[in-house]
């Protein structure tokens, strides 16, 4: 099959047409990928921010149609349109039994680039190829657990639906699931890429009274206001702590969402939250970055909270349909999240846009539509 391959960090992706993908085994399906959004998690492998274990097909925010089903799969059929998820819940492991579906044993692939059994199902000329964030969707086909492909209605455009797979699940989920934000709450969102914008929308959907959005890119701040931010700040020029103290009567925000993947912003979030407030780590900082909490006894005495967030703490089998219902009701704007569309041949240009902060989400078309 044709796929974009990252052979080593710091190099451009190369498109090959000789990758091999396994046929689905028991409990698996094969998906013909139509569209894949580009995420900072993919970019992290390209820049060396995240460790690259070997040649890898990036991409994990995707939608397509079922191409083949393995033995025992009865809820999906060839031709079904689906959205892919990096954390397919097995329903049986320790974490699924405790309704912590995003921590399912299957989600190990997000870090390992493999399936749960350690295999990848991908190779090129006999060499093992890893799956970017457990999927590897910048390719014509993906084989994955059947719960990793969530069926959607046939009238939903796949180029729009693909963004749900990561950005929307993560950002909206961080608000509704990880933080469990209550109506009338106050919050700040630090970083306004795809996940940060989805977080702003999640806060609006939750009924937040104040949504303060911070990013150095003016276009992103303007878009955040359209998505529901009540205040926008340029962190390089504005006084973010002063604004928060002003609009919260000196209390601080209830929630801070770090969505840029920087430890320094996590620390800032801890400072900006009120007593008893919660800071949610939504972005993924580089491995070499550490978190410093000054005066830990004060952190303890003020009962502040810090928590991680993987894929919005979502059960994708529930979350993807819920997000699509919100979209149909006009409560979730997915189309405006997509600022660039490119063919697979321009995937490196798409990642360059991402690295430079141009736009919000670039969607890659894997295969050209059939001729009329």
TrEMBL record:
Q: Which residues form the Enoyl reductase (ER) domain?
A: 10-364
Matching InterPro entries, A to Z?
Answer: ADH-like_C, ADH-like_N, ADH_Zn_CS, ER, GroES-like_sf, NAD(P)-bd_dom_sf
Keyword NAD assigned to the entry: answer is: yes
- SMART domains assigned: PKS_ER
Q: A GO CC term?
A: cytosol
Reply yes or no: does the keyword Glycoprotein apply. no
What cofactors does the UniProt entry give for this protein? Zn(2+)
Q: Could you say which protein family the record assigns here? A: Belongs to the zinc-containing alcohol dehydrogenase family.
This chain's protein is named: Zn-dependent alcohol dehydrogenase
């Amino acid at each position: 099959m044709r796929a974009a391959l990252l052979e080593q960090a710091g190099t451009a992706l190369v498109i090959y047409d000789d990758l091999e993908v396994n046929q689905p085994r028991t409990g698996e399906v094969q998906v013909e990928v139509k569209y894949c959004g580009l995420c900072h998690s993919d970019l992290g492998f390209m820049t060396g921010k995240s460790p690259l274990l070997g040649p890898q097909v990036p991409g994990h925010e995707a939608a397509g149609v079922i191409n083949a089903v393995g033995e025992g799969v009865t809820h999906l059929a060839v031709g079904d349109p689906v959205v892919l998820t990096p954390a397919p819940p097995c329903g049986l492991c320790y974490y699924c039994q405790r309704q912590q579906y995003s921590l399912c044993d299957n989600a190990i692939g997000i870090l390992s680039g493999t399936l749960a059994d350690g295999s990848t199902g991908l190779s090129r000329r006999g060499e093992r190829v890893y799956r970017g964030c457990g999927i590897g969707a910048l390719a014509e086909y993906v084989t994955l657990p059947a719960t990793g492909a969530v069926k959607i209605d046939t009238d939903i455009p796949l180029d729009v639906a693909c963004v749900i797979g990561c950005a929307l699940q993560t950002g909206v989920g961080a608000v509704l699931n990880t933080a469990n934000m209550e109506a009338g709450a106050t919050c700040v969102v630090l970083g306004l890429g795809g996940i940060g914008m989805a977080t702003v929308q999640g806060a609006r959907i939750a009924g937040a009274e104040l949504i303060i959005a911070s990013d150095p890119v003016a276009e992103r701040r303007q878009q955040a206001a359209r998505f529901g931010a009540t205040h926008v700040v340029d962190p390089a020029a504005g006084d973010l702590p002063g604004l928060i103290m002003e609009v919260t009567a000196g209390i601080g925000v209830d929630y801070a969402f770090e969505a840029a993947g920087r430890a320094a912003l996590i620390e800032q979030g801890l400072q900006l939250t009120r007593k008893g407030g919660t800071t949610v780590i939504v972005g993924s900082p580089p491995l070499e970055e550490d978190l410093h909490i000054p005066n830990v006894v004060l952190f303890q005495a003020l009962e502040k909270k810090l928590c991680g967030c993987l894929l919005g703490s979502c059960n994708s089998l529930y979350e993807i349909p819920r997000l699509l219902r919100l979209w149909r009701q006009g409560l979730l704007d997915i189309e405006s999240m997509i600022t660039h569309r490119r063919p697979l041949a321009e995937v490196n240009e798409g990642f360059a846009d991402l690295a430079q902060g141009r736009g919000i989400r670039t969607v890659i078309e894997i295969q050209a539509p059939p001729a009329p």
